[in-house]
Design a protein that fits this description.
- The structure holds two protein chains of two kinds.
- By secondary structure, chain A is α+β, with helices and mostly antiparallel strands.
- In chain A, about 35% of the residues lie in helices and about 25% in strands.
- Chain A folds into two domains: about 375 residues, no CATH class; about 60 residues, Dna Ligase, domain 1 (2-Layer Sandwich), CATH 3.30.1490.270.
- Chain A contains 13 helices and 21 strands.
- Chain B has two domains: about 150 residues, no CATH class; about 160 residues, no CATH class.
- By secondary structure, chain B is mainly α.
- Classes of the chains: A alpha+beta, B mainly alpha.
- At the A-B interface, α2, α9, β5 and β7 of A face α1 of B.
Amino acid sequence: MRRPDGGIRAAYRDFWKRIEEVPREQLLLKQAEADALFRRVGITFLVYGEGGSTERLIPFDIVPRILDASEWKVIEEGCIQRVKALNAFLHDIYHDQEILRAGVVPKEMVYRNPAYRPEMQGVDLARRVYSHVSGIDIVRIGPADFYVLEDNLRTPSGVSYVLENREVMMRLFPEAFARQRVAPVGNYPERLLHNLRAVSPGDVSEPTVVLLTPGRYNSAYFEHLFLAEQMGIELVEGRDLFVRDGRVWMRTTEGPVRVDVIYRRIDDDFMDPLAFRADSMLGVPGILSVVRAGRVTLANGFGAGVADDKAMYSFVPEIIRFYLGEKPVLNNVQTWRLGEPEARAYVLERLHELVVKEVHGSGGYGMLVGPAATKAEREAYRRRVLKDPGNFIAQPTLALSTCPTFSKAGIAPRHVDLRPYVLSGETTSVIPGGLTRVALRAGSLVVNSSQGGGVKDTWVLER
Amino acid sequence: MLSRTAQNLFWLSRYIERAENTARLLDVTYRMSLLPSAASQQDQQWGPLLAIGSAAAEFGARYGEAGGESVIEYMGFDPANPSSILACVAAARENARAERSAISTEMWEALNATHLELQSKKYRDFAKDGVRGFFDWVKERSHLFRGVTFGTMYRDDAFHFIRLGTFLERGDNTARILDIKYHQLLPQGRRNGEAVDYFQWGALLRSVSAFRAYRQAYRDTVDPQKIAELLILDADMPRSLLYCFEEVVNVLATLCGARPRECLRLAGEIHASLKFGRIDRIVAGGLHDFLNGFLVRSNGLAVQIQRDFMMSLQFE
């Protein structure tokens, strides 16, 4: 929130002035009201979890994260640039592989990648889009210094919080929205549907779009239900779909109905037991053959994951230059690939100051935060790295920006990151804002909800 | 609408209706067992209930002799018995959970609260206050769910499948209650018109909320044949077989729209036999055979409904 010189950033001035005037008791009431609103929306959410599931409400913080128009412009441009380049990269990888032939990305980075799908080689996707919904995780280091931590091109979740958070904030602080022009986010489902319809197979004029969920025991089921309802499309499970005569159909009371676009929230591995994991009960047998024939569109497409693991991440600036001929707008965090001997030697010397992550890990699991770890933990981790060094990368610990956050002791700074959602289809666009995740423990850098993180509403102020 | 959704909703309302009717059947049996004439024949009172769903063998193996307490335990609270009230409510709630987006919030809340309360209470708590209080509670919760469905649910296909399940199950259940009790109260060889036990027949009427209706329809003392007529052929009696099939035919006609299907024809056939049936003929031909035939045909209809709406593998 503050500038390096300690002053309040312009975007926060209005909200900060108001919130400073509000007595603590009243803020407590607001926070309690927010919790109650979420519980009401989330009642379904909690009941789903009953019976040993891990689901629960994610803590919500009533102080918004605020970005002004010029700050947002950088993020928006950077995200669009990145996703365009990554989609071009994926198309290239699954077609002519010019980037491999040019030696910009080493071949083994692709062929040894478990997310690479040789079955998709030579398959043309509608509008050449592989990642229709992308989540780009961003942190801020300095006033205009935004770094990408991670690209999520498979089935990024969390967008329902963006919409719910805004709903709750507009009920709690209507006067703030009246005074400031906060860019709206509520049309996200509309834009998503528009994009999904725009990537339907070529021979279809009125496409049927469905959302495919693993089912009600999935931790993001609430979001699947929410998005399907908002878009007015069927929420289906694998067993509701079948393949016949080269098409995908859904079983309805009116007989089989052809399905053209599937917004799927199931990982590649589980999508087709005939092609991938044979033990999957979640997918649709034979669907890969229909995808290959171009008669159904999956969003996101098979094999998009080859571009988003933590090792490929380090090549993204090169990828942007290669396909777009542009300078990357957003910075990449310096990354050492521990499969490379020099990098490995350098990193193992400095475990106490670096962050080490698994290439395919997510959710903050299986990572080592050097400065916060004990000597024993670092030693144990060193042994893990040496067993399979290619599976690890290291990065410097970043001085993440902080945002005022309501805690028991009052309003105090906490570290935050930001995940804007990028939609690709007819065009590539970003909803203004995104999911701000906040590390609720003082000093903590881990914002994942599975590790004690919470969420905030993100405001982008219009000019 | 997805076939899975149709199936879940169809069975959701069947489970609830079954729970209610099981409570009704246990209630009437319990009342009858309290009457002095029945004191010596406990077995004959409770045993036939187990014939429903052919549960006698399984019951015998686990509970031994059929008595009031054990049968109520088995049909009310045994989670291992898929037709027990407890199991029916749990199954209904599980279906509702899967179809949260197809039903109203109030419907889900009513069902969820019923389930949670049933899970938290023990048979003995209810027994302390008298089991009849429990039966009344089950009926009330079923009424609540139906009322909430009527008052809050959008009139789409989801609503129609819920109605379909309710009336198909209710017709089936009324036929079973009548079959069991009629033949208990009117053993073979005893001719119609002999003095009958007012209290016993009154209890049967009350179990299907038909006591007042009987008085209004016939203005007569209780007569077994008239009771059978009321519960089978009366178009205004909401638990009669004819009433249930009026609803079933209407709902199916709506669901089929311009495309008539086999299930609608089957339902029409059953409906016609009820609408144009005569009670003296039915009784002369044997009431038990008639009701049994009805149950077989009603079950055949349910299978056809599944085939027409819920299996949709066949292209037209």
